[in-house]
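Task: sequence in, structure out. Protein: tRNA (guanine(46)-N(7))-methyltransferase.
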Amino acid sequence: MVRQHVDPFQSRYQELIEIPNWNEIFENSNLPILIDIGPARGKYLIEMAEKNLDRNYLGLEIREQLVTKANEEVKEKKLRNIHFIFCNASLNFIPIYESLKNRVDIVNILNPDPWYKNSHKKRRLITLDFVKGLYYNVKNGLEIHIQSDVEELIKDIDQTMEFFFEKIGDDFPVISDREKYALANDETIFKRIFRKKIR
Ligand SMILES: C[S@@+](CC[C@H](N)C(=O)[O-])C[C@H]1O[C@@H](n2cnc3c(N)ncnc32)[C@H](O)[C@@H]1O
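Result:
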């Protein structure tokens, strides 16, 4: 059984991963790349990779079994422009981003876990420390695409992001696996596009 949630502060999720050799992972590692933080099983990301062979896709997911399954599908489909990595993105995003030089142009964070309880809020992906880290390490113009079906969470995300990023839109053409479920159940999805502010 795949666990619904994992506590990112447990010691097994506190490790920095060894950065892969991207030339061995992607057929053409010079293509622009989209990083998706928390893709879960990542079916939507695989569909995007199949449709857009002129870019690379990288999913960073903290639940190892889902990463194994997603990479099995990638292998079966013989796709060479997508890969999933098991890691805690809160710690590993920046080193991975840096290793990809300036090729990352979009970062997706789609339906991050809301961790409702006050005592669990520090487990959220989009915290002020994480956003500050993004701001000081990513290039000007980088777009962060965020969505959630939890209004309270998106309000909190707006407040946190707007310290360092400007909101430039509220739609983008990706329908994630969680979003498909939300739409089928008549739930509202809130989408945001943020871009790094030039100071
Ligand atoms: C609600 S699911 C959304 C899945 C997908 N993005 C979608 O919209 O269909 C959130 C995912 O983020 C992952 N996640 C949470 N914290 C993470 C972290 N620190 N690093 C990597 N993945 C994380 C969870 O394991 C989960 O699979």
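The mean pLDDT is 94.
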